Amino acid sequence: MTAAPPIPNGGWAASTGSAAPAAPRSRVRRAWAMVGSIALVVLSSLLVIVAGTTHLVAGSTPSTTLQVLVAIGILSMLAVSVLLIWRHRFSTLVYVLATGLTMIVPTTPLPALLALAALTAVRRGRMRWALVAASSAATVVACFWDLTAYSSFLAVFVGAPAEGTPARLALFWVVPFLAALLVAPFAAFGFSRQLRVERDSARWGNTTAARNIAALHQEVSMERERQEIAREIHDTLAARLSSVSLHAGALELQVGDSDARATAAAQAVRESAQHSLDDLRNLVRVLRNPALNSGTTTGLVDIGALVDAALREGTDVRAQMFVGDPSSCDHEVAHACYRIVQEAISNVRRHAPGASLFVDLRGGPETGLTLRTVNWLVPDARPTSTGGGNGIPGMSERAALMGGSFEAGETAEGTFAVVVWLPWHRR
C-alpha cells in the first residue's frame, strides 16, 4: 500500500447548498442588463439623430452657426449615448456630460434623464434634489430647442403649428410642466432603486444577525455540554484512575524485591494510570475553557519513547522513522501523529494479541508526514478487551482535522494496514 495523496482544499469537501445556482443566475441577470443597456443606447442614439435633424429638414433655413452646433450636438450626444452602458459605474461623469451637452446643444434630454435615474440611486439628501432640478432645467432647454425648430417634435402632438405662429409660441408656457412630467418617472425610478437597495441591505443585515444569534445559541449549548462532560469525567474517571494508581503503588511497595516481574508490572500500571490521569486533567481543563491551548506535549520526538514503553509492556513493535527536522513541525500535527501510533499499538494489543506491529514514519517539511502501520492478522484471536469501536474512526477524524488523508483495512497478504498522510505545518 502507498500513502494516499493529500485531500484537496485542506481535506474538507466543498460545501454545496442552495447557493450553488447563484453564479448562473447572476450571469443571466448581467446578460439581460447588458441587453437592456444596449437597447437604451440604440433608442437614445435614434432620438439624438431625430432631435438634431429637426433643425435641418427641408424648408428650414438654419444659419451656419446653428448647423455647426447641431452637428456638434449630434456627434457629442451619440458618444454620450454609448457611455450610457457604464452609467451605473461612472454615474457622475455620464450625468455631467449628458446634462451639460443638453443645456448647450439642440438634442434630446433622454441621455440626461437616464443618467439621472442612475445617479439618484446612489446619491442622498439635498444632492438628489439638486440633480433633479438640474435635469429639469436641461429638459426645459431641450424642449425650447425643439419648439424653435422648423419641424418640432413636440408640436406634432398638438396639430403641428408652424414655426413662429401664436399656437407654436403658446407651447413655450407648457414646457416647464412638460419637463416636470418627463423628469418625474426617471427620478422616481432612481429613488425606488435606492429604496430597494436599502431594503435588501436591511434584510441581509437581519439574516446575518439571525444567523449570528443562532450561532451564539449553539455555542452556549455546546458550552453547557462541555461543562457537563467535564464534570462527569472529573467525578468518575479521574477518581477511578487515581484509585488505580494508588493501588498499583501499594502493590509495588508490598511486592518489593521478592518478585521483579510483578514489581515491574505494578510500576507500569502505576505510571500508565498517572499519565492517563494527567491527560484526563488536561482534557477537562480544555473542555472547561476551549480558548486555552490544549497544552499537548507529545509529538514526533516522543514516538520513540512510546515504542520503547510498548516493548517493555510486552508488545512487539518494530519502528523505523526518517523525519527531517521534527522539531519544526506544528505541535498539533505532531500530536495527532503520536496519537495515531498510540492507537495503532492499542488496537494490536486488543485485537491481535501476540502479533508484531511494524511502524514506518517518514517525511519532512517538503513532503508532509507519511505514517504506515502493519500487523499480521491473528486467526481466531480473542480480543483482550472490549472497545467502543472508536479507534479507526478516531484516527480518521484526527487525520481529517489536520487536513490529511487516511486509509485502513485488511490487505491481500493477510495483514491489517493503516496509512496516514498529514500535511507539514510549520510550528
Total domain units: 3
Low-confidence stretches: 1-22
**Tally of individual helices:** 11
Major β-sheet strand ordering = 1-2-3-5-4
Structural class by helix and strand composition = alpha+beta
Write down the overall geometry.
Answer: rod-shaped
Order of helices and strands: HHHHHHHHHEHEEHEE
Q: Report the β-strand fraction as a percent range.
A: 5-15%
Average pLDDT: 80
How far apart are the termini?
30 Å
Rg over CA atoms, rounded to whole Å, is: 41 Å
Query: Got a strand count?
Result: 5
Strand count, sense and barrel status of the largest sheet are: 5 strands, mixed
The helix content, as a percent range, equals 55-70%
Explain what you see:
This protein has 427 residues and is of the alpha+beta class. It has 3 domains: 26-211, no CATH class; 216-288; 300-422, Heat Shock Protein 90, CATH 3.30.565.10. It has 11 helices and 5 strands. It has helices at residues 22-53, 64-83, 91-104, 110-120, 126-147, 166-170, 175-255, 260-288, 303-312, 331-351, 391-401, and strands at 317-323, 357-364, 368-376, 405-410, 415-422. The chain has a 5-stranded mixed sheet, with helices on one face.
Short description:
Residues 225-291 form the Signal transduction histidine kinase subgroup 3 dimerisation and phosphoacceptor domain. This protein is an alpha+beta fold and 427 residues long. It is built from eleven helices and five strands, in the order αααααααααβαββαββ.
